[in-house]
Amino acid sequence: MTHNKHVNAYRVEIRGAAKHYGTLKALNNFDLTIEPGTFTVLLGPSGSGKSTLIRSIAGIERLDSGSIRFGDREVANNGFHMAPEKRDLAMVFQDYALWPHMTAFENVEYAIKRRNLDSIEATRRVNEALERVGLSAKGPNYPFQLSGGEQQRVALARAIVGRPSFLLFDEPLSNLDADLRERLRVEIATLTREIGATACYITHDQSEAFALADQIGVLRAGELQQIASPEEIYRHPANRFVAAFTGISGSFLGTVTEANGKKVEVAIGKRRIECRTSADLKVGDSVEVLIRPSATSLSDHRSNSLPAIVLDVAYRGRGYEHVVECEFGVISSVFATESTSRGSKVDIYIDPHNCLAFPSEKRVALEAAIAEFAPSTN
Amino acid sequence: MALDGGLLVRHRVPFSNEDSRFKRGFNRIRITPMAVFWTLITFILVIPILLFLSVAFSPRLMSQGHQWFTLASFKPVFSGAYGIALLHSLIIGVIAAVGAMIIALSMAWLVLRTNSPARILWNTTIFALFLAPSYLIALGWQRLFEQRGVLEIMGLHVEPIRNLLYGPVGITMVLMVKGIPFAYLVIANAMRGLGEEFEQAVRVHGGNRLAAFKVMASLLMPSLFSAMAIVFAEAISDFGVASTLSSVGHFSVATYQLYQGINSIPVNFPVSAATSITLLSLVIMAILAQNRALRGRSFRTLSGRTRPVTITKLSFLGKFSTSTYIVVLLMITLGIPVFGAISASMLDGLGSLLSHYTINFSNYSRVLHSRFLRNPLIYSTEMSLITATLAVGLAAIASKVLTSARNTRSKKFVDFFLLAAVALPGIVFAIGYIFTYNLRFINDLGLHIYGTSFLLALAYTANALPSTSRSLVGNMGQIQESMMDAARVHGSGAARAWIDVTMPLIARPLLIAWLLTFSGTLLELPVSELLYPPGSPPVAVGIELSLAGFDYGGGTAIEVLSILWALVVVGIAFFLFNRFAPPGWKRLGNQR
Hints:
Chain A is an alpha+beta fold and 378 residues long.
């Protein structure tokens, strides 16, 4: 089966979206733009508002304020709420949401009814969708007769069969085992790009986000922290939270001893480490140094390295990952092709490129407090 | 469609960006299914209950006295005939509750935890006991043991048993029998979730069988208290036994006293309302006592790790003694009343002063050929069809509101009124309807519905709605909301999604709820007795009228035919469901 880019993918714009549950702010003045035909992943921990956002986009939740626009259609705006069935989108749910009284075929067929096709064409499209997800023989089966992975494939077929312009994914892989997750991830990426739909995918799994996305939005407490390409998010995280949530193997507190634009030297105890920073740091500032997993290696380098003791070692197929303890804390995921036994003394080289310095949380909090109570200059 | 909507929901239509501000002003108003639901709930449940009960405190509010606020109506409730009747109800309620709980506990253990051979008879018995109203059980006993009853005609001397039956012992026994299925279902459900691991944990840590039993009993405590609270509530609000054994034996109970009060002239509505509130308070106190007894303790025993229990293999003596116990219990609960009803219905001339009686089917022939005997069955069938359909429809919406993930005001409101209505005895409901729909201002509104089949259908529906809703809540709560969301997102409106997704998923529970409501309404007594339209008696009233005219044979023949008819309808409904429902609908709820 060949899917051409046949759908009219549109831009999705969210402006000032807010949603409260009692006193809890699930979304707080949230802005987001998703370009037509792109794959956007919203990444965030539990309670960051990503589920509320995707449900509001789908029309399942009603925003308290703000607007959502699909192309030139406004689907939500202060008070106005377009019903989900009128938004012409499709969604893959975390718990699959297959209807247990319908067969796999009937589940997929349900989503195409709104297209008012003749029965021959509808059947052809359903069979095509099932074939595309590798389940052409499973059409007559009920959901309980399918494995978890097959059930999620049926949900995927249901989402694509109507050739929607906009596809939503609500943590669709979180209930599957690692191997299956990887295989389905590839299928989602290929299928969505084949049909050319705009896609919005939410997850708390950073590896999933980096693998799928054209752009990643990182959420925290109902607010968008940063939205950028995966490379940009990884290399230039906007703040400590984005850096920490997109993968670190350790962190240390220190003081800036030398500042040179985006490069700084940080004293950690008696050691000095070179790092990058996106903040405006000065000599003497307290900072937190976050180390990406790709920044560390076991090495004889004397510069930019820390002495440590191996606490644990785990075989990972292509090599070994070590957990080491230095005098300032623990660093995990230190990769080497050869194993070093537990208790061995080693030097850990830290690549300045993947080592990021941020103002320490205490300093950030203090600056915020000063800004709040400082007399207005207006 | 907004589930949490008001009576009228403002429906906004999509608008283009250019003239959005202008068009926003033109929202059209439409009547939604939820609006119909709330209107019906208000008129059939909220208004009759509140208006009637408010008269106890404020007789002047509804032109029933001169005072705006008084507690004087409560004085007679706690003295004289009312006070004695209330005390009687309280005592027999407690005894029936404790007795039913003990019997149900023993039966749950025998059925679920042993290989006693007679246990297979029990599930059918429970279903039959659920269907049989208390007055039919009482009438079965009465026909056997009354003067010139079946057993005396057979030449047996039964006067000592009769004296016991027509008094507190007989009344308590029948109420206990009627309470057993309620208690059994609660306790058996809890016992099913109680895996073997708790008992094993006691034993491996040095506890003996007695210690293990104590732990198991503690874990079952919530269900035991619930069972007692339910049976107590059912017993003190029962009208069937009150109108049969209690009235014949002159042992007054609160519900019969209420009935007599409403039949006296002039009717003292404030005192009836005060009695109703007192009765309602007793039920609520039972529920509160249950909650208090369990407060602060966690009894969550059901989890994904619950291990199936091992069945205790009984010795020959064990099998014999437990089977004897089950068979004796079956005889008392169902065997004797059924034998009483069937034998009486086949005795030609029972109730007359004849000296010779013949066994034949003439009573059945009379019922089928006499308009007076046959019409009640036809009328009740029509009313039951309407009631079951209306009540199940409303109950489905109510249970959807109750299982909503959001704790909305409408959810709390429905929850409160349905809980209050569950505790409200049928007789109080009926009196509330008499009172409300006789009020001058209701008539001034043009609602002349008192004494009509329409009002009877509404009262039946309101009476059935609380229990029907509660019976659907469990199944509705199991439906993941994402399945409805998926239907909406993939192009179906709210109503369409409900029909395509929710209804098939709860098709079997809906059918069972419909059948229970149909059967319950077919044989319903208190609402029928007080609200039937002149000239159109329902089955229960038809039976009572026949018995009052000493046509015991005709009365019991109607009784037997009604039960058979209910069973036929149940059979037809299940046959149709199994024959014509789509395969996916039938598969749900079955074993994999």
